[in-house]
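quick one before i forget lol
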Amino acid sequence: MSTTELISDGRLRRVLLPAVVTVIAVFGSFGSSNNQEGRRHGDWIMVLLVLIGSVSLYWLRSHPIPVLWATVVSTLVYMLMQYGYGPVIFGFVIAVFTVIRTGHRLAGWVGLVTLYAGHVLGRLVLGTNDQNVYQVLLVGTCFVVLGFMAELFRGHRERVMAANKTRREAELRRAGEERLRIAQELHDVVAHHISLINVQASTALHLVDRQPEQAGPALAAIKDASKEALVELRSIVGVLRQSDESAPRQPVAGLDRLDHLISRTSMAGLEVHAIVHGDPRPLPTSLDRAAFRIIQESLTNVVRHAQATAATVRIQYGEESLVLQVDDDGSALAGPPREGNGIVGMRERATALGGTLTASRTPTGGLRIVANLPI
């Protein structure tokens, strides 16, 4: 395995830390033990203790608490055997810092207290204490500072992890909302055009034997509706592609295409009238698209279910809201309208924009859809 593969695999990084600490600790401990007066000279026991504390760092990420205690025990025995003070402490410092930073706070602080108390009390019991009170307090202060530094890094690490988690959740939420929007677009496009094709196909089948010369316009309408459906589907599905393809040539559906929608629907045998109140003006893209889709789905429901001959589309441009109303002259039915996927989808579009949508009966028994969308 090459060096690059080792680095990418993480093995070299795991080996590098204990290797560096081992070299520094072994040579540094020999130097400190041989040069500090009254200290025990370096021998194989010292080397063994140093190796335990430094080599164990290789397993620090996978087994942090056992590694911490390996460094505590080896360092404590090293000190009680009166080897020279020196870099032997490096392994313990790295272990306790990592343990606290990664969230094992209790184990880290217990390790700090154990090493400090074991060193002080052990020397008293063995009668080898050569430190005054100030030195003992200084060492204790250094241990406390080490613990609090690790706590600071732990807090920073947790804040970064929380921010990353929040960002990932936001990205997932946005992706879910986008999938829902695309699903609504697909539903509206497919339902509208398939309904028109179904009506025109029924007309063509009815006329093909009796009046074949009049079946041509119905077949032409089927061709145009299917072609337009394919174009819109290609435009919507193109959003899902992760490529640098050019933007769809089909414009985004909006109220500027209302006349085209009415023309297409009228070819299915439904007489549609559009009434506009107020001054038409450009609308935000999301609002414009939602308004068009609500009208489209309302007319689709009329064609498919209402057995109506005419429908009226009213659009009112207000200062703070856009009000849409679609009525049909369907036959009188008792009770409130049954809310299928179409009405539920329209209400979700309105709610997503902070608006409302209601479905009720007209005085003649037809269906009335009213959407109030804030601008």
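fyi The longest strand covers residues 310-317.
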